[in-house]
Automatic annotation (TrEMBL):
Residues 7-345 form the Enoyl reductase (ER) domain. One of its GO terms (molecular function) is zinc ion binding. The lineage of its organism: Bacteria, Bacillati, Bacillota, Bacilli, Bacillales. Gene3D superfamilies: Medium-chain alcohol dehydrogenases, catalytic domain, NAD(P)-binding Rossmann-like Domain. It comes from Alkalicoccobacillus porphyridii. The keyword Zinc applies. This is Galactitol-1-phosphate 5-dehydrogenase.
Length: 349
């Protein structure tokens, strides 16, 4: 089969590789229809991370069941599916306590085992979820990042009528905005320095957009909220700078949830750090998208909300390319050859 395989920093190759086969009783082989490029893929492409040289890459995708093991009963060949790429061991203390996102042996396909940037991929049965015909394959490929955003907000105590600020309007930030709306937020503030991302944020449900290049984000937010701040602040930019600045956004007693990963040391000025203590903030780290019972309500709710059209991811999708153009797409994205939202790769073209 054809696949995108990673060999080194910025060394991604479109080449022929062995197709996966059903070997275990709970195996499901999926014919990939659409695969999405994740921000973590871009980071690994530039800086590497956990991977095996020559590994088939990618973890956001949708497809059709090709073959199943003898114990698989919930799907059959020909069924349309989304897939949770996270492999939790199920036997460590965290898994047994119902926190698979904290699994001691957590892994994701596309790092140390073959992923979804290919014509076929393979997962255990419990990682594969049927999707209704009302969800297109393009949209179904965004079930995974949608579940990531939902997982983070589920950690908070956000209630209908609450207020949310999202710092960083990349794909996870945009999906956090959409979920905040579905959670019933009465006001959603989108913060980014890129006007095009802020425009997408408005399409995804943001009520107010803030560009901190004009005036500091917390100053603008304070003015807009009469000095209160918001109930929940989401850090989804993943930069060392914003990882400190986010603490100035919540109200007293408010919450901060980190969904971005800063690939560098975070130095927090006293002004921002004191907000944690003096405002008695609650701070959450959000990792991956799974909960118990595995893979969790993040997945079932995402599929349900997509099926009704309440969760509309269409505005995020800016590019749809053949899989064979993957190496060039990654090069162009990191060198900012265009404005990129969610980029989808099609192995069938």
């Amino acid at each position: 089969m054809n696949a995108l395989n990673l060999y080194d920093i910025e060394d991604l190759r479109f080449e022929s590789t062995a197709s996966p086969e059903v070997k275990a009783a709970d195996d499901i082989v999926i014919r990939v229809k659409i695969a999405g490029i994740c921000g973590s893929d871009l980071s690994r492409y530039r800086k590497l991370g956990p991977y095996v040289k020559g590994m088939t890459w990618g973890h956001e995708f949708s497809g059709v069941v090709e073959a199943v093991g003898e114990n698989v009963t919930h799907v059959k060949p020909g069924n349309r599916v989304a897939a949770c790429p996270t492999i939790a061991c199920g036997i460590c203390n965290s898994c047994l306590k119902g926190f698979p996102s904290q699994c001691n042996h957590l892994s994701v396909i596309g790092a140390k085992q073959p992923g979804g940037f290919a014509e076929f991929t393979k997962l255990p049965a419990r990682n594969v979820l049927p999707i209704p015909d009302s969800i297109s394959m393009d949209h179904a490929s965004l079930v995974e990042p949608s579940a990531v955003a939902a997982h983070g907000l589920y950690l908070t105590s956000l209630q209908p009528g609450g207020t949310v600020a999202v710092l960083g309007c990349g794909n996870i930030g945009l999906l956090s905005i959409a979920w905040a709306k579905l959670f019933g937020a009465s006001a959603i503030y989108a913060i980014d320095i890129d006007p095009k991302k802020l425009e997408l944020a408005k399409q995804m449900g943001a009520d107010v957009i803030i560009n901190p290049l004009e005036v500091a984000a917390h100053e603008q937010l304070s003015s807009l909220t009469e000095g209160d701040g918001v109930d929940v602040a989401v850090e989804s930019a993943g930069s060392p700078l914003t990882s400190a600045q986010v603490f100035a956004l919540p109200r007293k007693g408010g919450e901060v949830v980190f969904m971005g990963i800063p690939y560098g040391d975070v130095s927090i000025e006293r002004f921002y750090f004191e907000k944690i203590v003096r405002n008695e903030l609650k701070v959450y780290g959000s990792w991956n998208a799974v909960s118990s019972p595995f893979p969790g309500k993040e997945w079932t709710t995402t599929i349900q909300k997509m099926s009704t059209g309440e969760l509309n991811v269409a505005p995020m999708i800016t590019h749809r390319l053949p899989l064979r153009e993957g190496p060039q797409a990654f090069h162009d994205i990191i060198h900012q050859k265009d404005f990129y939202g969610k980029v989808l790769l099609d192995p069938t073209q």
